[in-house]
Amino acid sequence: MTVVAVVLFSILDVVAAFTNLTVLCIILPRNYLRTVSNLFLVGLTSTQLLMTLLVIPFSIVTFSKQEWSFSDGFCKFEGYLTTFLSISSATFISVISVDRFFSLANPMSHAGNITGKHVIFASLFNWFHSAFWAAFPLFGLEGLNYKYFPAKNGCAFRWDLKGSYRIFYYFIAMESFILPSFTICLMYFKSFQTARKSARQIRPGNIQIQVLQNGEFTTVAQTNSYQSCKANCTLTVIIGSFLISRGPLTIFNIVNSFTGEGYFSSLTETTVSFLLLLGPLLDSLVYFFLNRKLRQELYLILRKCFKRKSEGDEEPKDIVDYLRSIADNVEKRHSSTDIETHDIE
């Protein structure tokens, strides 16, 4: 069972790393794709790529050996990096939801006032405040430090310290899950309302003639049930992936802060901890495949790579070959026309 789980998580980690790297390779080299919304996606993707490369592989090795095989200093680094990247990715997801709402509610103001410099500043601030909150256990204040927990098969800090440490626990829970969850639910709900209101407005292609009881005619805005259903499914996928990957661990940590470590079984702790590691895979798939422009760009790249050119479609090497190819095509057309005329006669 352990071998199967190790192989499965290894495959998922490779897929997540490849997907996040693909997003970066598609957006960064192309100027027309480096929009404000896509730059926020680049920040999220970069954070998740670091998770797939620097955190998940060591968690898989620890799970397979059922022990921490590295140094204590590296354990502290891994625990710090896990907390830092978890807070940072959750903040990026909430910022993306806010950006998408304002770009939909007021596109002119959003396009004129939000630039790439604002995205860079917001990203740096996000990384700074995530690094700040994740750094407290590095000082080892009376037991609040990063160390290996066999039940979680990873390095983390204790959640059962009493006293003023509860304030730190609540801040971590607020930053990594509670506030981002509230933000994305509110913003995407407002975005859905704005989209429905815009769809009901009277505009070309959205008009339906309706006959009144007195025989007169009137026009009403026509709503598309398919688009409404598609929007509902999109919001369900975005919000659901965030809640599934981060919600259980946050709830378990809060319960542990009251009951003490060891309240849940080792298998439950490990399962919930690995759900957090699914975030890089789920986020990259959700935000990539729900972006129409990125899907089209990937399709064009794959089509260019795998399309087999026929001999007639082969590009000429110089101007002589180019003119010769034109002459050959004209001759072929004339010969085909003569054959068709002969058959008709």
Characterise this structure.
It holds the Pfam family 7tm_1. This is G-protein coupled receptors family 1 profile domain-containing protein. Belongs to the G-protein coupled receptor 1 family. With 345 residues, the chain is mostly helical. It is 72% helix and 5% strand. The protein is built from twelve helices and four strands. It has a two-stranded antiparallel ribbon. β1 and β2 form a beta hairpin. The protein starts with a helix and ends with a helix.
Task: Give a brief description.
This protein is mainly alpha-helical and 345 residues long.
What is the topology?
Layout: H1 2-27, H2 36-54, H3 56-65, H4 72-105, H5 107-113, H6 116-134, E1 147-149, E2 154-156, H7 165-199, E3 207-211, E4 217-221, H8 225-259, H9 266-277, H10 279-289, H11 292-306, H12 319-344
Antiparallel strand pairs: 1-2, 3-4
